[in-house]
Design a protein that fits this description.
- This protein is an alpha/beta fold.
- The chain has a single domain, classed as Arginase, Chain A, CATH 3.40.800.
- The chain has 14 helices and nine strands.
- A nine-stranded mixed sheet has the order 1-3-2-4-9-8-5-6-7, sandwiched between helices.
- Helix 13 packs parallel to helix 14.
- The two termini are about 35 Å apart.
- The structure holds N-(iminomethyl)-L-glutamic acid.
- The site of N-(iminomethyl)-L-glutamic acid has 12 residues, from loops.
Length: about 350
């Protein structure tokens, strides 16, 4: 856990705009000042959720995508800590752990060129190194009986989320992914487009549902793989929102039937959300409200085991809006998950 940078109180005080008569979320969340044994510390804490950042975009680079997801965590945490703590948002159930520091890997990737095949191979090796740290942290959190909430970062980290959870639970898990893409690309070295295929090939992922795929961006071979494997299923954005052959509520039910019988992780790739700055930003996609409804639905399920939000690109100008969007999603998850009704 040598890459873990704790989010301490002085850092948090610096970010919170305190107002008299109000309690901000960040004034009530739990933080750690130091830690010698992370597992023991987590186990002894009276919190349900452990929030952490994955500030990296090495996986996106290694998938020939547009970088920028490495900056999102810092925008999110600033906005989240300044939301209200009230009967709807119970911050004392949340440990803001900190982030994994991938500065070294990020630095190395800036020296690489995406059009050089050898350098892409090197970037993919760096992603495999990142995986190990994510797996280690996630398995420790789940082993300690807590629910991880990870803010990325690239979608490559779905692999670490799934493997870490699966190792802790000692069985393969399922996954529901709101995404324009399956991220089930070939096992060609690790990157942001094959987190799920690697997790499946290595038997950490059992049943996978890709929700709202874009028909323009899913290859014929991946569609055929999904159509011929009962563990893999999907619906498309076009079927739901354009042709309206499938009602949103029914789509949620079908996906729940596929993943909900055992533990599953919830993945939200921000490139599925309309006009949100991301590595593959889309002018056609689910609204923020539909995304929140999706999240509420799955977070309410008793088998939901983690939340991973990724691929948003927070820059100086749009950072506060991205931070606000992801803060809505984090608080929706906690609110709905804490009052599981399935
Ligand atoms: N995590 C994203 N995966 C997409 C990226 C698409 C893009 O960058 O255009 C994929 O590999 O298909």
């Amino acid at each position: 856990m040598n890459k873990l940078i704790l989010f301490n109180n002085s850092f948090s005080d610096h970010l919170i705009n305190a107002r008299s008569g109000e309690t901000k979320f960040g004034q009530q969340t739990i933080k750690l000042t130091s830690v010698s044994n992370i597992y023991d510390t987590l186990k002894s804490l009276d919190v349900k959720y452990v929030l952490f950042g994955l500030p990296e975009d090495v996986g996106v680079f290694a998938n020939h995508g547009k970088s920028g997801a490495c900056n999102t965590w810092k925008h999110v945490i600033k906005i989240l800590l300044n939301t209200q703590n009230n009967v709807f948002n119970e911050a004392s159930k949340v440990l803001v752990l900190g982030h994994l520091d991938f500065t070294e890997e990020q630095k190395e990737v800036t020296k690489l060129k995406q059009d050089n095949p050898k350098q892409i191979i090197r970037a993919r090796k760096l992603v495999a190194q990142i995986d190990k740290h994510v797996v280690d942290l996630v398995s420790t959190i789940v082993n300690a009986g807590k629910i991880p909430i990870a803010i990325g970062g690239g979608h490559n980290n779905a692999y670490g989320m799934i493997k870490g959870t699966s190792l802790a639970l000692k069985r393969p898990i399922n996954s529901i992914n709101l995404d324009a893409h399956t991220d089930f690309r070939a096992l060609e070295g690790r990157h942001s487009g094959n987190g799920f295929s690697y997790a499946y090939a290595e038997s950490f992922l059992k049943r996978y549902y890709a929700f709202g795929l874009h028909e323009n961006y899913t290859s014929a071979s991946i569609l055929s793989q999904f159509n011929n494997n009962k563990h893999l299923d999907y619906n498309t954005y076009e079927a739901i929102a354009v042709r309206q052959e499938l009602k949103f509520k029914k789509a949620l039910k079908q996906a729940t039937k596929h993943v909900g019988k055992t533990n599953f992780g919830i993945e939200i790739d921000c490139d599925a959300i309309l006009n949100i700055s991301s590595s593959a930003q889309t002018p056609s996609g689910f609204s923020v409200e539909k995304t929140r409804q999706f999240l509420h639905h799955f977070a309410s399920h008793s088998n939901a085991n983690y939340l991973h939000i990724c691929e948003a690109v927070g820059k100086k100008k749009n950072g506060p809006q991205i931070g606000k969007l992801i803060s809505y999603l984090i608080t929706d998850f906690i609110r709905s998950n804490d009052k599981k009704n399935d």
